[in-house]
Structures
1.
Amino acid sequence: MDVAPGPPLGALPHIARNARFIEVPEGATLLLYTDGLVEIPNQLIDDGLHKLRSAVRADDPAVVCQTVMHELVGNRPPTDDIAVLAMRRAPSRTGM
């Protein structure tokens, strides 16, 4: 999904925001995260984003979050706050 970043919600309450509607395909996983997950001191953010893309799979949301945290954070003490939220759109049930 190609969306231009903006300031954190609530940081600038009077700023105009752009709404974006996306369709999440059946079986797909949507992952939302804060910058603390991918911004690591002395590393390019592109490296963190690449590592994140490599870690995410269409799976149970709890498994996705655990895998992402394990792969990107592991045992290193975080230098920033980290929040991760995953959702998976269930495949439709045919024949019902």
Note: Residues 3 and 21 are 11 Å apart (CA to CA).
2.
Amino acid sequence: MIFRNVIPGLAAAITLVSLTPTVANAQTEQTWFHDLPSAQRVAKEKNLPLLVHFSAKWCIPCQKMEGSVLNQRVVKGFFGKQLIACKIDGDVYPELLTRYGIETYPTDLVLDPRGKELQRNQGDLNIVDYVEFVQAVIPKPAPETKPQTLIAKKPKLGLGLDGYCPVTLKRSRKWTKGKPKFKANYKGIDYQFQSQKILDSFNSAPAEFAPKLLGCDPVVLTESHRAIPGFTKYGAFFDEKLFLFSSAENRTRFKKNPLEFTRTRHVLKADDIIRTAIQPKDSSSS
């Protein structure tokens, strides 16, 4: 993921020029637009989602995606039929970076025909993940028969820290189980505590005691932009903050150079966490 640097005085006013009919018609021949107004007009006319890819020529991950992902037949096969696609060079159209809140390269947005944002991804993706990202917003054909009405349930996250008390862990570096009757929810994750007094301490400053990154492995998050839960077996404190890791190897790498994996600020929600099927049974302090 590349963070853009905006240098005052270099942002020039850009006049958007509409595509000629020849270029616009080429969209049905599996090509990218390079002009947002024209792409938006076609998306509205065809009532299709609009995929907008923001990049820059100096961005190495962007150039990697250009050859291995963006121009692959499986990606371009969606164009003109299931969605409209447009590439934007942030150095050419800096005003669009401000309009859509683009802070990193590459960034992909999917907008509905009216311009409402449906989905966003920051960072480079491989071909498989990019296709999944695109397919997630493609309108599904209406079923021939009326399906049975179902109530969707969110998958449950496991009990935070496997039930160990986060306050006791920070204060004494001891893995001590909390009690179910002393429970609090923080950012969608339940934690248990040893007493009401300890629970009150947590509620007064939950961010001080809860694992950083919602307990996700900072090494995996930094290198692959995936929110993979860490295990209590592989915990470590850095700067008085608790981090969890998915393997002993990742914990060792973090300890050697923690700033490499903490200098980027990540904002996660519980729904971002990718659930895992296997977890170590025992737990130990770092």
Note: The first strand starts at residue 2 and ends at 3.
